[in-house]
Amino acid sequence: MELFYTYQISDGICFLDQEESVHCVKVLRHRAGDQIDVIDGIGTLYHCRLLDAGPKGAQAAILSEVRGWGSHPYNLTIGCCPTKNNERFEWFVEKATEIGVDRIVPLIGERSERKVYKTDRARRIALSATKQSLKAVVPEIAEPVSVTSFVGQDAASLRLIAYCFEDGSHPRRSIKEALQGFDGKDVTVLIGPEGDFSQEEASLALEAGYIPVHLGPSRLRTETAAVISAAAVYLHFMD
Amino acid sequence: MELFYTYQISDGICFLDQEESVHCVKVLRHRAGDQIDVIDGIGTLYHCRLLDAGPKGAQAAILSEVRGWGSHPYNLTIGCCPTKNNERFEWFVEKATEIGVDRIVPLIGERSERKVYKTDRARRIALSATKQSLKAVVPEIAEPVSVTSFVGQDAASLRLIAYCFEDGSHPRRSIKEALQGFDGKDVTVLIGPEGDFSQEEASLALEAGYIPVHLGPSRLRTETAAVISAAAVYLHFMD
């Protein structure tokens, strides 16, 4: 099953941009009259018939639609400090999208080796992973924000921060234990940089109501920790 | 913490091979008298003092040892069909090693696009991921074997096969449900190729006592499915 993406839908017509049109018409050689499937990136799959097979701007008439297609029963935000090696973070974006994530927030921590992050590549990766994994919602890749300002903003009902040090007064539970019995929908998990969150960042998060967690006995790379968090939430909501 | 690896240990001396010696002496510039940490790849960490800092074959005297260092409370075998794109399978090897896996078996399935798999690169990746994630056991990367012959051999107490089709007479449960209440130690999970296992392979596995599972609603790439399986077992054994 091949999916195309567009945000331009009106009067029952999906308008593909040039990139999607080229892929549809030149690469996959679709012709007017062919049936194609289009996602709007915000939850709906449209079964369409190709009207105009122009490589600059193909158009397809909507035959039927499926709302909430490929959706998951939770709303997960992962705030993660981009890794020094960009590919590792992008790999996390791809895998979290496949597993099921709603929002990825690149966090800039005190100890981040990468203080600047451009979101354009991650957005392309999220879109292609969304199509590849047959989902209709493309996860939001937020603009980078500092850890300290993010923890003040986020309002998920379950907010977890994973760090590696022990703070006597706030013992960490495992992410599994923290999720146990949670019957809400909105979860946020924060994953620090290679050098971990700073004590100050952790304290601010705890003051803001975050629950300190660990991800088990294994020492995980930043991007692996972020994927394990997505997996823990995905598995928590699995029957 | 920097780890070195050797399988040559005798009379209280760890003998590093040339690659490890160069890394220890040339790259990290260790000198005789320095303390270094060495793993034997089968579970023990040795705190050592460097005696001979020769770049061709450094030697270190064992001061103390920690058995079962960085170990996990289960014994997990993942049989997975190597992906067409080698990097994706190697990525799984790295991530599963970080999370905690004991044996990775490259499976050749009827529908495998990759019918030949060379294990040398995967072994190097497993070793470096073991050191990087501070474990003392290097997961075994077995030689490739066909799905049909593997399912006849393996004798783990919990054997799961993940495939994507529905077989009316053998409904699949989720991997989470299949793990629930399992208090054994030995788990094997089989993950098929991009084209999935064949009906025949699945039937053979079921006859051999495998439990058919799915990995939840998301459509996962082969390597992501394999990592999710490792994560599910890791989380099952997490407190």
Short summary:
Two copies of one chain form a homodimer. Chain A contains seven helices and 14 strands.
Structure write-up:
The structure is a homodimer of 239-residue chains. By secondary structure, chain A is an alpha/beta fold. Chain A has 2 domains: 3-67, Beta Barrel (Ribosomal Protein L25, Chain P), CATH 2.40.240.20; 75-238, SPOUT methyltransferase, trefoil knot domain (Alpha/beta knot, 3-Layer(aba) Sandwich). Chain A has 7 helices and 14 strands. In chain A, helix 2 (86-99) packs parallel to helix 7 (222-236). The radius of gyration of chain A is 20 Å and the shape is elongated. The model of chain A has no long low-confidence stretch (mean pLDDT 96). The A-B interface holds A 70, 72, 91, 95, 98-100, 132-135, 174-177, 216-221, 224, 227-228, 231-232, 234-235, 238-239 and B 70, 72, 91, 95, 98-100, 132-135, 174-177, 216-221, 224, 227-228, 231-232, 234-235, 238-239.
Shape of chain A: elongated
Poorly predicted regions of chain A are none
The first-to-last residue Cα distance of chain A is: 26 Å
Biggest interface, chains and residue tallies: A-B, 30 and 30 residues
Structural class of chain A: alpha/beta
Question: Which architecture of the largest domain in chain A would the CATH scheme give at its second level?
Answer: 3-Layer(aba) Sandwich
Tally of separate helices of chain A: 7
Helical residue percent band of chain A: 25-40%
Q: Domains counted in the coordinates of chain A: how many?
A: 2
CATH fold-type name of the largest domain in chain A: Alpha/beta knot
